[in-house]
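Sanity check

After download, print the first record. It should look like this:
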Amino acid sequence: MLKISKAKKAAMDRLSTKEGFIEALAIDQRGALKKMIKAEGQEPTDELIIEFKKLVSEELTPYASSILLDPEFGIEAADARHAEAGLLLAYEKTGYDVTIPGRLPDLLEDWSVKGLKDKGADAIKFLLYYDVNEEPKLNHQKHAFVERLGSECFGEDIPFYLELLSYDKTIQDNNSNDYAKVKPRKVIDMMKEFSKPQYKVDVLKVEVPVNMDVVEGFGKEAVYTKETAAAYFKEQSESTQLPFIFLSAGVSANLFQETLEFAKEAGSTFSGVLCGRATWKNGVHHFVANGEDATRKWLQSEGRENIESLNKVVERTATSWHEKVEVSELVR
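Expected structure tokens:
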């Protein structure tokens, strides 16, 4: 079991339901949100991004256990969240330098774990791109980087949520069938790596181990049978002793909910979700085309329905992180 301090336990309680389910809303997108606004024909100014995040926070955090934001554009949204919603703050720079091999990680230069904690963060989130088949030298750099992050969070006695996104240096399209064939090993093996104690990770935020669009019965073509896909979900769950949660990866709200049901049936012991675009992405159109009032109406109706229906699925399918954690002051 994961051993954590009383302070970390209290922080994790603030981020989840009393039963230990993480029903978190993610809107720490920066580059992706700019692209979405631009696709609607509007220049994505800082002011627009800040305002949209604030609207999402105000309208949807009453129905979420917590919200994930970035400190670059999300501080006003953090302040606007519901009183009972916990706060995760992102520590990474958005994207990666495409001119340098390896998708190396980088931190926000103006922030530290202490600074994020002082802004009210209950946990720190960091996104790492990782290919288990990358050059060993590059992966060693990433290992050392995450060790430093874990130690910084440990020093501040604040939970460390590590988000892992897989890739393959030889395959450009993560939605391709070629990638679907290698994805399970990528996801499972990187979870094994970062579950090691030297990284001091408290919660893993991860992809599901297969592309559900190419699972038999879920899409037009099948790369995996249902039995094979279920076995990968089970193996993923058994690859870590840490609490882990699923990210939505931009799929539709319906497909994400169906995925959670499938994961449960397969024996996965995930403890919840950190769901972003599947909840709020359609609100961007209303925001650009029709302004604040129309956006609020959409968030109060379809946006709320997205998150409340997802919460019901989580409560039916997830395993409480309480079962994977033990409080011990010996870890301090």
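If your output differs, re-run the checksum step. Summary of this record's structure: The longest strand covers residues 123-130.
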